[in-house]
Design brief:
The complex is a heterodimer. Chain A is mostly helical. Chain A has one domain. Chain A contains 20 helices and two strands. In chain A, strand 1 (about 65-75) and strand 2 form a beta hairpin. Chain A is globular. Chain A starts with a helix and ends with a helix. Mean pLDDT of chain A is about 85; it is low at about 495-505. Chain B is mainly alpha-helical. Chain B has 23 helices and two strands. In chain B, helix 19 (about 405-415) runs antiparallel to helix 20 (about 420-445). The chains are: A mainly alpha, B mainly alpha.
Chain lengths: ~500, ~525
């Protein structure tokens, strides 16, 4: 079979296909329709390529697969080292799944500087995939920083009224936080002579890194700060509502769907992987911050008059679940955290698309501007309800499994964590359903809403795949968890696993 | 006919220069010849044509200088009574400063025509200044270094005042001249003192004599004074105050030149003084200068509205990042520091010359459009220029895929390896703060619509070529830095080779010296 031939290249192909597409796009003439079709083809192609990963991924194995490891720069010792495990596999596919949908949802809503928009979108996709696939700390930082510019440009050029403020705030918050990670990475390189994640992890595990115990806490914090701002964990969350409200729909989808997961992915991969002891030592206060985030995010969401801001705060709440699950150090908690990441990506992505649909028609996100929309837009209302229910955590839809597992893990760790966390689910039902009621039920209060057209073909094509994914993820979570579980177990006890794997081979 | 090893052993003081010794200063000779040619031709060609013709001759001169550098690189060694040394270190800086001059000349074609400045001496001075800079990197004799420094400085003093009709340009020139002369006097004073302390002005001999303990107090004073002079030239805090005014008043292409060429040459001298001499007591001096330069430069740039002033403050900050690489003390760390500093000067030259080329194109007649407001909506009115400028700015921020990223990365990596944790943290935090003001330019170009009509002219060939070279260099250093890095590491090994006590060559050297009349 050709998998033998394709496997060494597939990760590079998936990662750089969008970038290649973006470069080709630069050469294309400014005919908007061609540019849209071309971007859709490229992003779908990337998605199909990434399915190869899912199909040929060996479930039940904990190590990295589809690895490529080649020297890029001799001194310092930087490698082009890529590989995925069950954790990164699904995040890569989440990225490639959401990007074509972003193209579709932007089909008509972006009509100025179309070429620039799609170039930026595709470059962003490459950077995002690169973050999840790189196993060299340098390469990781490279892609991590590379996501900043396209996202800031998406917000700053194609956003709404206060776009510049939001773009600069987003950029500066993440940039300042991530330089501490750079300092930590440089420390690790200075003391190990390597940027390779696997090698550094093994050396730390063997205690073969000089003066590591003294520095470990600071290194942990250096990485953690960069990730915490990205997640965003309370109290580093203030950039998120601004960025979301001002971003164009596609920007919000990728921001909530994928960019925030870079933070939680980083915690899972690097904070747990490299510093297991410090992670356990710091877990109590991190979990408390996560709980504050869950409850605070939900309460603030409850009182938002702006739909997009409401969903932005709900993201803070949901990502709090992820952090809670990660730092519960239980198998259920970590599996749940991973699953919440994916479920949140799909359903919140869809929620942002749906609010974007309304904004397209009315140019406002204010809840008070709407009411009784179920009558003029029945299909839209039904789609919205489906996604809201998925997000609320209705059993048999994707939100339920992840939150349930996270809460199980939190209970195992300490009952009070689980109890406080569980209130978050109640709140989320409250704010989302209340918003749904105010927007869709009752009488049409603004006459202009009577004439709103229902969801269009492109919009359906963008939203319904998310709804389908939400359903499949809710009914058959094992499809995802089978790959996640071994990776999560490895993350829980990184060193023995790695060594036994070495011996086993 | 004496052979090269004899020259190495420094036993026979040569009085009559050999043929090969002229090859070792061939780039300087070629550049001087072309500089003189431009001056001679200036009155002969009529004024209308002189702009293009003289510019072209100067550009050819720079290209010939690059060729001569390549030729020079084939015969490394000492020349002229051990005053000049050709090794990969000096070849590297020769290439760098001459390439900078070439790009600056290219980007001046249009500028000179638009500003209606008579071209003659302008191009000649760029070439002659480059002679000084090139010589600074290969001189291993402090007095010769001083002369080279003066050649380069006097040329730049005059160039800074070339917008004769503008008061700000005269102010720039005069300020630069007065403060610069003052600073080089400090350097000379330092040279005199080190001669008093060690009995020599030859860098290798000085480093030999400093191996003996204890080092006399005079040497510390001398080092500090020399650092004052060189610190001024590289615009390091606390000797940076002149930079914004001078950079603002000078013609835009010359600002690009001043902030990269003489700076690179001064860093070359500083590298020799610090590492080849193995200057004692330098650690805190450089640590403090690095920390202050980064912080003051970045904080100062935050509030600027004039793009030239903004880039002037940014150049102070970048001098600070480079100085981080100087704060190494052990030989192992020094190698990493030297190569990081060299890589940084090259990457900074590529992106900064490019950025100033954009500024000089956009400034228009009389440099009218140099404030941030004038850049509003540039992303729409001239997308290619804006995109190019954006890449240079991203490189100055230090975003991946650009040379600026690797440059910062190597510097901080070297610092972390030398266990300079606090300096590294100050550096990385500064680079995050610095991102803000570069981002402001990108923001006004892309995210604001222009409120006034700023004329945009098509990019002429010369400038386009200059931008293309800078852009290629910036991206090349960001994607495939390995090649240049190997060169800088080779240079670093050669630079700190002599004082290394284990090397057999050095041992021979010292044995030879004990019988020599020195």
């Amino acid at each position: 079979m050709n998998i033998q031939n394709l496997s060494p290249y597939i990760l590079s192909l998936v990662t750089f296909a969008p970038l290649a597409g973006a470069l080709l796009l630069m050469l294309l003439p400014r005919r908007d329709r061609d540019i849209r079709i071309f971007s859709l083809v490229i992003s779908l192609l990337t998605f199909v390529l990434s399915l190869h990963l899912a199909v040929h991924f060996h479930r039940g194995q904990s190590g990295f697969q589809f690895e490529v490891n080649q020297q890029w720069i001799s001194t310092p010792n930087i490698h082009y080292h890529m590989g995925i495990d069950g954790i990164s596999l699904w995040l890569v596919i989440l990225t490639t799944f959401l990007t074509p949908l972003c193209v579709l949802i932007s089909w008509t809503s972006i009509h100025d500087r179309v070429k620039e928009f799609f170039i930026i979108l595709l470059v962003l996709e490459t950077a995002l995939i690169g973050v999840f696939t790189s196993l060299d700390l340098f390469l990781f930082y490279f892609f991590w920083e590379a996501t900043l510019i396209p996202m800031a440009l998406l917000i700053g050029i194609f956003g709404h009224e206060r776009k510049v403020y939001a773009a600069v705030k987003f950029f500066m918050y993440t940039m300042i936080a991530s330089v501490f990670m750079l300092a930590a990475i440089l420390w690790l390189y200075a003391h190990t002579g390597s940027f390779d994640f696997v090698e550094i992890r093994d050396r730390i595990g063997r205690g073969a890194v000089p003066s590591f115990p003294a520095a470990a806490q600071w290194l942990f914090l250096g990485f953690f700060l960069a990730f915490a701002v990205k997640v965003p964990l309370f109290p580093f969350h203030t950039w998120l509502p601004d960025a979301h409200v001002e971003a164009p729909t596609a920007g919000s989808v990728l921001l909530a769907g994928v960019l925030l997961k870079m933070g939680t992915y980083g915690m899972l991969r690097f904070n747990l992987g490299l510093f297991p002891e410090q992670a356990r030592y710091n877990a109590p206060w991190i979990m408390i911050l996560a709980l504050i985030g869950i409850v605070y995010g939900a309460l603030v969401a409850l009182v938002q008059p702006n739909m997009k801001k409401l969903i932005a705060y709900s993201s803070i709440s949901h990502l709090g679940f992820v952090v809670l699950g990660i730092f519960s150090f239980t198998q259920a908690g970590l599996n749940g955290a991973m699953f919440v990441m994916l479920a949140h990506g799909v359903s919140t992505g869809a929620l942002f698309m749906l609010t974007g649909v309304l904004h397209e028609r009315r140019h406002t996100y204010e809840i008070s501007e709407f009411g009784g929309l179920a009558a003029p837009m029945p299909i839209y209302a039904a789609s919205f309800l489906f996604i809201v229910l998925a997000s609320v955590g209705l059993p048999l839809l994707n939100g339920f499994i992840g939150e349930f597992l996270v809460l199980t893990g939190a209970f195992q760790d300490r009952a009070i964590y689980g109890i406080i966390g569980a209130t978050g689910i109640i709140w989320s039902a409250g704010y989302l359903l209340w918003m749904y009621q105010r927007v869709f039920y009752g009488k049409v209060t603004h006459a202009v809403n009577n004439s709103l057209s229902d969801i269009s073909g492109f919009e359906k094509a963008a939203v319904w795949p998310c709804a389908a994914a939400a359903l499949v993820m809710g009914v058959a979570p094992i499809l995802w968890l089978a790959a996640i579980d071994p990776a999560v177990q490895a993350a829980l006890s990184p060193i023995p696993q790695a060594l036994s794997k070495l011996v086993g081979q | 006919m004496t052979t090269i090893p004899a020259a190495w052993l420094q036993t026979i003081p040569q009085t009559v220069p050999q043929g090969v010794e002229y090859i070792r200063i061939l780039p300087e000779l070629v550049l001087s010849a072309f500089g003189i040619l431009v001056m001679v031709l200036d009155p002969l060609v009529d004024e209308e044509k002189s702009q293009k013709t003289l510019g072209l001759i100067a550009f050819l001169g720079a290209i010939a200088g690059l060729g001569a550098t390549w030729y020079m690189a084939q015969s490394p060694g000492l020349a002229f009574s051990n005053m000049v040394r050709v090794d990969s270190f000096s070849v590297f800086f020769h290439f760098l400063v001459i390439a900078i001059a070439a790009v600056v000349i290219l980007s001046s074609f249009e500028y000179m025509a638009v500003q209606r400045i008579r071209a003659g001496e302008y191009y000649a001075l760029i070439l002659l200044g480059t002679v000084g800079m090139a010589l600074m990197s290969s001189a291993v004799e402090l007095v010769l270094i001083f002369i080279a420094l003066e050649i380069s400085s006097i040329a730049t003093y005059i160039l800074a005042g070339f917008r004769r009709r503008e008061a700000s340009s005269s102010e720039s020139s005069l300020k630069y001249f007065l403060l610069g002369s003052f600073a080089t006097a400090f350097f000379l004073y330092g040279v005199a003192m080190i001669f008093g302390a060690t009995g020599s002005t030859n860098i290798e001999l000085i480093s030999q004599s400093l191996l003996a303990q204890p080092v006399p107090l005079l040497v510390y004073v001398a080092m500090a004074l020399m650092f004052v002079g060189l610190g001024f030239k590289v615009a390091a805090a606390p000797f940076h105050v002149w930079t914004p005014d001078v950079y603002e008043g000078a013609p835009a292409p010359i600002t690009g030149f001043m902030s990269t060429g003489p700076k690179a040459a001064a860093f070359a001298v500083l590298l020799r003084v610090v590492f080849a001499i193995n200057a004692p007591g330098r650690f805190w001096l450089l640590w403090v200068a690095a920390a202050f330069s980064m912080t003051l430069g970045n904080v100062g740039a935050l509030v600027q509205t004039n793009v030239k002033r903004l880039l002037a403050y940014s150049s102070i900050a970048h001098a600070g990042y480079i100085l981080v690489a100087f704060a190494m003390t052990t030989p192992e760390n020094s190698g990493a520091g030297i190569s990081a500093a060299m890589f940084y000067t090259a990457a900074y030259a590529a992106m900064n010359v490019g950025a100033f080329a954009v500024v000089s194109h956009f400034a228009n007649a009389g440099e009218r459009y140099v404030t941030l407001e004038d850049y509003e909506g540039l992303g729409r009115t001239s997308p290619i220029l804006a995109a190019t400028f954006t890449i240079f700015l991203l490189s100055l921020i230090g975003i991946p895929m650009t040379g600026g990223f690797f440059a910062k990365f190597y510097v901080f990596s070297a610092a972390m390896r030398a266990n300079l944790i606090w300096l590294t943290i100050i550096g990385v935090v500064n680079s995050a703060i610095g991102a803000y003001y570069y981002l402001r330019i990108i923001v006004v170009m892309y995210m604001r619509e222009s409120r006034k009509t700023v004329p945009t002219t098509p990019i002429p060939f010369g400038l386009g070529f200059a931008l293309f070279i800078s852009l290629t260099a910036t991206l090349y250093l960001g994607l495939l830095p390995d090649r240049l890095l190997q060169d800088t590491q080779q240079s670093a090994r050669e630079l700190i080779h002599v004082p290394e006590p284990v090397a057999p060559n050095a041992a021979q050297n010292r044995a030879a010296e004990s019988i020599s009349p020195h």
